[in-house]
Amino acid sequence: MISSEPIPDTQRTEDRVLSGMRPTGALHLGHYHGALKNWAQLQNTYACYFFVADWHALTTHYETPETISAHTTEMVIDWLAAGVDPSKATLFVQSRVIEHAELFLLLGMGTPLSWLERVPTYKDQIANLRDKDLTTYGFLGYPLLQAADILIYLARYVPVGADQIPHIEMSREIARRFNHLYGKDPLIEAQACAASAKLPEAVREQLVALRRAADQEGLTEMREQARELISASKLSRAEKDALRAQLSGGRRQILREPEALLTPESKLPGLDGRKMSKSYGNSIAIREDRASVEQKVKRMPTDPARVKRTDPGNPQRCPVWQFHLAYSDDATQDWVQRGCTTAGIGCLECKQPVIDAILREQQPMLERAQPYIDNPALVRDILADGCDKARVTAQSTMRAVRDAMGLKI
Ligand code: TRP
Ligand code: SF4
């Protein structure tokens, strides 16, 4: 299930929101307009957990683990710059809450390989990142580790971009399967067991097979057939009810099925009109210095048909126009449309309001970041605090998980 509209932030709820980012270093304005602005909003309504997915970074960068720590600090400073507030949200680092690893391991026992292999990002990434050997156990397990991240906080919502939806879907399936396998309710079980003992052996075996197929592969058709088999049997009404309860779950919810909260697409493309991405070299960092912002925007390509100042242009064919759409008010947009199509303004002139708007947007972020740049120990403290809080929640889920699985001494 995918929600694109979070519940309005009129009051706080206890519902947990969880999201993570791999530590890629300094973030850019695309991250800000996509994810971070959304996080800063969600923290006003939900109990938010935002974490650095450093183990996930290792699945692709296992050969260069030494970059991760510096990237973590840089990235978290950008979260704070963007207004993510440690007094409202819990900020932490995945590898410092080792319970994620325990849940990952336990879930791994019952997760069919085919579920992992069919996740679209799996084959795509292996094909895209040709220079890396991703035929590893860790990389295959990427979405399962992500499921553990989410399920261990019993998160209700997971804000992510569209590319992550299959991972959230898989997390739901994993939760469902876990509850099915280990959430059996002893009372329902006992009654159903007594009832099925009264069935003819062939029917009993058929029922078991159908139920297994229905639960493990989600085949609703099988569930229907099992229902019919129960109805057609000569059992009492109470006995049939017990079998039906067992069939339709009869399970405790130990892990919660999370919902994806689709992050609205950032309206801001990269400097060249493609998606903003550090690897395309078309990005502006959240904390890019002023001179560099100015230079980058001044060098942006414009409508290729406007070779000379006197040639009229078409904003539709110009990436600068996309920036005006993201940043400028109606009056400025009108000024661009008219000035461009009549050659009334030059491109440098046209770019100036964009430069001004970006610098204006960055100013409060630079101010918020400065104390952390001056004193990175503050970032470490925030994360240490967040890890302690996250661990309490994670440990409580793990107690329930171990308990359900009977892993006690
Ligand atoms: N896979 C996510 C990404 O690449 C990062 C991530 C790891 C994550 N664990 C998560 C996101 C849990 C949401 C919830 O963006
Ligand atoms: Fe682009 Fe503005 Fe130049 Fe028109 S005037 S081509 S919109 S930069």
Word description of this protein:
By secondary structure, the protein is mainly alpha-helical. The chain folds into 3 domains: 9-180 and 256-266 and 375-404, HUPs (Rossmann fold, 3-Layer(aba) Sandwich), CATH 3.40.50.620; 185-247; 278-374, Tyrosyl-Transfer RNA Synthetase (Orthogonal Bundle). Helix content is 57%, strand content 6%. The chain contains 18 helices and 6 strands. The strands form 2 sheets. Strands 1-6-5 form a 3-stranded parallel β-sheet, with helices on both faces. A 3-stranded parallel β-sheet has the order 2-3-4. Strand 2 (16-21), helix 1 and strand 3 (47-52) form a beta-alpha-beta unit. Helix 3 (68-81) packs across helix 17 and helix 8 (142-151) packs across helix 9 (165-182). The mean pLDDT is 93.
Features of this protein?
mainly alpha; elongated; 18 helices; binds tryptophan; binds iron/sulfur cluster; 6 strands; Rossmann fold
Classify the secondary structure makeup into a structural class: mainly alpha
Strand order of the largest sheet: 1-6-5
Give me the Rg, rounded: 27 Å
Strand tally is: 6
Going by CATH, what is the homologous superfamily of the largest domain? HUPs
Into how many domains do the coordinates divide?
3
Overall pLDDT = 93
Hey, roughly how much beta strand do the residues contain? 5-15%
Each distinct ligand: tryptophan, iron/sulfur cluster
Give the biggest beta sheet.
3 strands, parallel
The H/E string reads EEHEHHEHHHHHEHHHHHEHHHHH
